[in-house]
Amino acid sequence: MSYVDEMISRAIDKNPGEPEFHQAVREVLDSLRPVIDENEAMYRRDAILERLIEPERVVSFRVPWVDDKGQVQVNRGYRVQFSSAIGPYKGGLRFHPSVNQGIVKFLGFEQIFKNALTDLPIGGGKGGADFDPKGKSDREVMAFCQSFMNELYRHIGANTDVPAGDIGVGGREVGYLYGQYKRLTGRYEGVLTGKGLTFGGSLVRKESTGYGLVYITEEMLRNHEMTMSGKTVIVSGSGNVAIYATERAQHFGAKVVALSDSSGFVYDPKGIRIDIVKDIKEKRRGRIKEYVDEVPSAKYTEGRGIWNIPCDIALPCATQNELTLSDAKALKENGCFAICEGANMPVTQEATDYVMESEMFFLPGKASNAGGVTTSALEMTQNSERLYWSFEKTDSRLKEIMVNIYAQISGAAKDYGYEDNYVIGANIAAFKKIADAMHSQGIV
Ligand SMILES: NC(=O)C1=CN([C@@H]2O[C@H](COP(=O)(O)OP(=O)(O)OC[C@H]3O[C@@H](n4cnc5c(N)ncnc54)[C@H](O)[C@@H]3O)[C@@H](O)[C@H]2O)C=CC1
Ligand SMILES: O=C(O)CCC(=O)C(=O)O
Q1: Which has the least CB within 10 A, 188, 287, 288, 300?
Q2: Ligand 2 centroid to 169 CA: how many Å?
Q3: ipTM above 0.85, yes or no
């Protein structure tokens, strides 16, 4: 059996009941075959892949808190410190009822490669809890965040592990987490990113994942003599990534006609009014169906189906495995020519295979949604300098890094004879840096 196949089996055997982690490992290792084949004996001797798929540390803990009725609730928290090969662990926290160890491990594993592509000194980690902030009062969210930090603070630090937001964790949650960290440790340091702008946060962090997605999509199109201008775009989700992807795509002249949430989707043939979506989602914490109350041209449909709407470009920005094989076929039939992932692993493996075979452009999340963690790393830089950068400086650095990521992934794909295969390109470009750092640091 080849080394890669052995390692895929090992990941499955040693991590039962973690299908998302298996999926992420398989996707990465499969595409590393051309590199591993070049020097299989050396990679085997150094157990590079065994070490890469085994997190350095997994912490799981009890999170008790009191709800508004006086009832004690108990959730489970996690932090997976996957790899510090190229810097302190870095990656978000997800608060969602679906969170379990396998999901946090898949996200932490992806994060190692994504962070390597940024060319900034950050390793890979991820965390979260099976807590649902939806429908909770601010006091309940604060109580949960404080209890979560009562354990997490022992494991993190500005130079060891720097969490940030993800699904269900935005500015409000990061603020509560930061306040509790400061209270417990007495330290005022860049231990979390995505902080508020009055206490060490960076301009552009809020916008950065969505903006970065559009910057790299535009760069890919530019390299094929195209542009987003005039294109019809579908964005799924209506959270942080979706909102700012929509805003930037519109800025580039695209027409975004649909957005969704976990209940359903809105279709607005005149183009989504992002100011209204921001009001519903960021201020009122409401549901996307409220959009049609304010925009008569729009239609709301309950349930799945957003990918049946005709478009040129699809930007899945909600959650993992949200775009299936039948969705990919519907997109292709309706003329869609590019799928660029804003979320982490939103396209299933079968759908990805189909997309690659049908010669659509496909940008994998570890490259195309790297704008968020990039700006987080820029926030760490600003915190270390004890300075704030302007919006323009931060945004232009973000753009530069996204363009550089595109150059790396297209270059690596071409070098190995897989031109325009950005899945292979991203995995190989990232792996080479990680493996080199691991090799140089000895057996740790
Ligand atoms: N926030 C960030 O900076 C980054 C986020 N990501 C990824 O982007 C994705 C979205 O994250 P955020 O926008 O930060 O979260 P968020 O919590 O702000 O928004 C998530 C959105 O997805 C929707 N959603 C959840 N499950 C859904 C489903 N099954 N079908 C349709 N919609 C669904 C929610 O209703 C919500 O609108 C996640 O995969 C996350 O890991 C990736 C890189 C950075
Ligand atoms: O900003 C960060 O540190 C992490 C963002 C994140 O969780 C991700 O890239 O998936």
Answers
A1: 188
A2: 11
A3: yes
